Amino acid sequence: MRQIEDTKTAELPGMPTAKRRGRPPLGERAMTAAERQRASRKARFQAGLKNMSLTTPVQFNAMVDIATREKLKRLATEEGLTMGQLLDRLIEQL
User: For residues 20-41, b (16+ Cβ closer than 10 Å) or e, as one string?
Assistant: First the structure.
């Protein structure tokens, strides 16, 4: 075994090489944080499709008036909910 910085010494055949530290990458390189998050969202979504009893969070964007947003925010705070949870409850009441 030789030091990593040593570029002149040859490795001896049959000698164990040092293993890389950390979790082995899935491809040629480690995934970035964005790639891990994307994979996590995809897996969570797929799990929700297989088991409909699970809630599968999805992103929901809507343009509303500032007064409407403030009302939703105030109601959510009063109820101890997130705005997404409040919207889920309001839609279930329809």
Answer: eeeeeeeeeeeeeeeeeeeeee
| Whether this model's pTM surpasses 0.70 | no
Output the CA–CA distances (angstroms, integers) from residue 90 to 52, 60, 77, 94, in the order listed. 20, 15, 15, 7
Secondary structure E strands in 1-94: none
Of the candidates 33, 60, 55, which has an alpha carbon nearest to the alpha carbon of residue 44? 55
User: How do the pLDDT tens digits run along the chain, 94 residues long?
Assistant: 667 787 787 777 777 777 778 777 778 888 889 999 999 888 887 877 777 666 667 778 889 999 999 999 999 999 999 998 899 899 999 9
Name the residue ranges covered by the structural domains of the chain. 29-59, 60-94
Chain-centroid distance, C-alpha 31: 12
